[in-house]
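Researcher: Excuse me, tokens okay?
***
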Amino acid sequence: MAAIEVGGTAFGYDEAGEGPAVVLLHAALGDRRMWDAQFTALAATHRVIRYDRRGFGETRGETGEHAHYEDLLALLDARGIEQAALVGASMGGACALDAALAAPERITRLVLLGSGLTGQPWPDHMLADIADLTAALFPDGRLARYQAREREVDPADVRAMAEANIRYLVAGPDRDISVLPPEMVARVREMCEQVYRHDWTAPQWTERIPDTRHRLAEITTPALVVIGTSDARGLVELSAHLAESLPQAEFVELADTGHLPSMERPEEVSALLRKFL
């Protein structure tokens, strides 16, 4: 394990290259391995950092109260980085936006791929889809018991939860999983199973969550908003909202692409990043 200690917590971490700093922030479906292609591609011209956020991958979720964007800024401090571009996928994008509000002078560029937004409730149709999926998988309510750490975890349930995420988000609600490269599906499955094994067994901690949704107009950092058109409709709608609300945003739609374009279309995403950064 490569690690960097920040505030008493060891974060799984990789760094390569020289030049302007870029930090890659992973989605909640996985960990820093989702950036394998971009980590290598960008290291030719940039100082690239990727790490596992608190509670993911090789980073423990310590008890207490924490904020992901504060961890990010503390990590920059620990590496002596005054300014960096942030590339965030899904909830990694939400973390990037939070950091851009907390320390705007430190963030030079924002790239948001299928981004979340802290404080923004998911639309009713997306909540209904997720409720239907989880009800089908856990009709006896054992999901709530897993989340409360009240039940020993069945590996079959971990696998089923990962598969549901792959079908609904990674492929997208209107595509079959067979459209994805098999090696990509295997890697996402491995990461996502680890997410749920950890989420249902590790010590619980409280995340301090800022409300960023009403402050987007304050973020004047140049931004690139990227969305796969086959992603869940709520995320497609959210990316369009981000592109409209951020004062200096470019908007790129990737046709026939799901929630993890960095893995589904690695060369195209790497090229977009090199051009924007």
User: Anything to note?
Assistant: Strands lie at 3-6, 9-16, 21-25, 47-51, 65-66, 84-89, 107-113, 206-207, 223-228, 249-254. The longest strand covers residues 9-16. The chain has ten helices and ten strands. The chain has a mean pLDDT of 94.
